[in-house]
Amino acid sequence: MLAVLKEKAAPGVTLKQVPIPKPQKDEVLVKVIYASICGTDIGIYDWIPWAASHIKPPTIIGHEIVGKVIEINSDKKTDIQVGDLVSSETHIFCLNCYQCMIKNYHICENMNLFGIGRNGGFAQYATIPLKTTWKNDPSIPVEFMSAQEPLGNAVHCVTKAGVKNKKVLIMGLGPVGLCAGAVSKAMGAKEVVGINDEPYRRQIAEKMGFDRILSKLDEKEYSTFDVVLEMSGNRLGIDIAFEAVRIGGKFVAFGIPKENVSIDWGKHMINKELTILSVFGRRLWETWKQTSKLLKSKKIDLSPLITHKFKLKDFEKAMTLMKSRKCGKILLEP
Asked: What pLDDT, on a 0 to 100 scale, did the predictor assign at position 70?
């Protein structure tokens, strides 16, 4: 089968024919229908320090997928059947650590990662642990099924923040930030404002229901937002986000900086008496259930977000476009 392989500990990837994998005990084999490119995949491609510390080449990358189950290797009772359309939860949990015991599976202390710590889904076939396989509702458009992970990140952020009747600022309009704006509106936010310099992303935000999209925040709006969702991981963006949140407000950190970031501890952490929350991934399986419900009810429409499709063999072209930021979510077709 054709696969996108991180073959060497260096920038770039290799498109290569590799054997179709065999599902190990308690795994499913899926024929991939769509896989979508994540910002994490850009970091892996560029071989940033985070990627170098998490991946041992050779590894098939890609973690946002939808596929059809063609084989199940398990004696365990499951509602997943051959022919089902399924997606993969990236966070592969151990079930044995303290976090797993208190059902925080998404922050398992011994976590492995699909498409990072083990072979993933930028391929024609992929194996997924049965315990991290999500059975999709067939009423959801197949294209949307491959983007449930980024949407789930947004659902987790917005749910944790509690945005009903609140004025919300989204800092950074990558795919998760765009989803966060749509989810905030669906969950009853009074106003949703986005900040991003890229005109293409600003147009998508308009289609996804943002009330206002700014290139930068006017100083008159500093300390006026009840909730700020920091989705950019950009140093300047983080500074503006701390300025924007009102005294006693909520600051939710999701974007991962590429370098260490310093903040004015006294001004932002102490004087404002903020509630600061951080989010990593999706709660299993609560967030997936919420995400599915939003898509089934059509309160969330991902059509504006999914802007391009490429054949898997054209991965390099897709990655070039992804890096340009003149796109939303890019789907790969094996």
From this structure: 98
Strand boundaries in the chain, DSSP class E: 2-6, 14-17, 27-36, 59-60, 64-73, 85-88, 91-92, 112-113, 125-129, 133-135, 167-171, 191-195, 212-214, 225-230, 245-253, 275-278, 306-311, 329-333
Under-50 pLDDT residues of the chain: none
Identify whether the C-beta of residue 328 lies closer than 8 Å to the C-beta of residue 305: yes
Q: What is the pTM of this model?
A: 0.94
- The CATH class of 2-147+305-333 is alpha beta
DSSP conformational letter for 137: P
Query: Other CB atoms closer than 10 Å to residue 243's CB: what's the count?
Result: 19
- The matching CATH number, chosen from 3.40.50.720, 3.50.50.60, 3.30.1660.10, 3.30.110.30, for 150-278 is 3.40.50.720
Q: Which residues contact 294 (CB under 8 A, 6 or more apart)?
A: 151, 155, 183, 186, 300
302 burial level (CB within 10 Å; 0-12, 13-18, 19+): buried
Sign of CA dihedral 154, 155, 161, 165: positive
Nearest C-alpha neighbor of 64 from the set 297, 302, 252, 256: 302
- End-to-end Cα separation, the chain, in angstroms: 9
Report domain extents, the chain. Answer: 2-147+305-333, 150-278
